Amino acid sequence: MLIYYCLPARDLEVTTNHKDDVEISLGSNQPPQAISWKKPEGILKVYTSLWDFLAKEMDIIEKIWKDKRIKHALKNLIPLLVEKDNSWQNSKEAKGKTISLGSVENLCKGDNDGGDQKGKDSAEPTNSKKQSIYKYNPLLIATITGIVPIVAEILRQHPQAAEHVSYSEQNILHLAIKHRQREILELLKRKPITISRLNEMIDSDGNTILHQAADRSYYSVAISEKLIGPAMQLQAELRWMMGVKNILPPHYIMHHNNKDQTAEELFNDEHNELLKSAQEWIKDTAQSCSTVAVLVATVVFAAAYAMPGGNEPNGLPVFHDSPLFWLFTCMDVVAIACSLSSVAFFLSILSSPLEYPFFCHGLPRKLMIGFTLLFLSMATTMLAFAATILLVIRIEKKWTKSLLYCIAFFPVPLFGLLQFPMYQKVTKIFRPFFIPFLGFSKRRSICGKSRAN
Description:
This is Ankyrin repeat-containing protein NPR4-like. Keywords: Membrane, Transmembrane, Transmembrane helix. It comes from Prunus avium (Cherry). InterPro entries: Ankyrin_rpt-contain_sf, PGG_dom. It is a single chain. A hairpin with a 5-residue loop joins strand 5 and strand 6 (about 450). The protein starts with a helix and ends with a strand. It has three domains: about 1-85, no CATH class; about 135-270, Alpha Horseshoe (Serine Threonine Protein Phosphatase 5, Tetratricopeptide repeat), CATH 1.25.40.20; about 280-420, Four Helix Bundle (Hemerythrin (Met), subunit A) (Up-down Bundle), CATH 1.20.120. The chain has helices at about 1-5, 20-25, 45-55, 60-85, 105-135, 140-145, 150-155, 170-180, 180-190, 190-200, 210-215, 220, 230-245, 265-270, 270-305, 325-350, 355-360, 360-395, 400-410, 410-420, 420-435; strands spanning about 10-15, 35, 90-95, 165, 440-445, 450. It is mainly alpha-helical.
């Protein structure tokens, strides 16, 4: 990452007389005459030459530099291409639809829809070619794939493009939510006027943006963040649903789609299997971890009554004046406190109702806190063990002491490395609690999480 930022990135220049060659050269294999790299000058030339030499000697630097050049070139090309592209004008414009509140209304609409559908079917052969060509315009494709610079540039140069929809009448907000493109959603959130027009649209299947959030069809493709375990996956889906619900007008929440389902009913149907997997996973995890925590508590409790070196006739420990003895005592107390606390958290998970609302915040938070306390209990137990070894053996050489500490402490970093993806979630759990104490204000994001300003 540091090498990436240190590498020089030269700007592209487009000559004014051949600016149109950019468009002509897109279909050919020849490089366009209108585009060229700006030659570095002065100190930058020396700096670039140094990196050129390193890139020839090291393939990894050459690869990183190539990626940076491509990204930098795209940054310069995107405004030019967006300026020339008007394909979004060939797509449909969004049309407003009324809210459906249930099956009775859908039955009444059934006969009327038949004639409309017949008309659509008769017109389909003449428009099938055009529909296949303009199934998705560049704005919609960039939204689906999550290319934020292209979406931002199109909306900057052509704000009216946001009103156009796909063949299934889904706008960019529908597609961003459906494909779990969080950054695109954040971009639209910063445009209140745009999102206020898009959040009320209903697609050809009668789905609102909340129905798109409930649909799990594109979940595995769209989620780039690695989530550990079904419980974390279900939590991410619930938070995504809650975030979309916050930007949907309240009277659309009870809307029924063409299958006579509300968004909540669709969510329950789509996530039943995930809920069962999450219930089994969190039960098994809590039971296994509580067993380990009880074993740790048993060991450190027994160690408290078996003082290293024994006791003097007056009952005081032999090494009560040694700093290592106080290290042993403190680590032993912390270990038993953390292990028993983690047992309490794991038992509270097993006694909780394992339903959708509890997976949103409570259960994953308890699991993460329990894991953290278990990790701390193991770390302090190994520190107490290392202090005991040094007290009993009385080694004078410093390097030998250091070696013993490393060997005794080895299981702790091993456990941490294996569970590191899980611990990344801990910072997100405790962040809302510590943000006010650090002087930051809480800002509500569209996905139901608090962020610091």
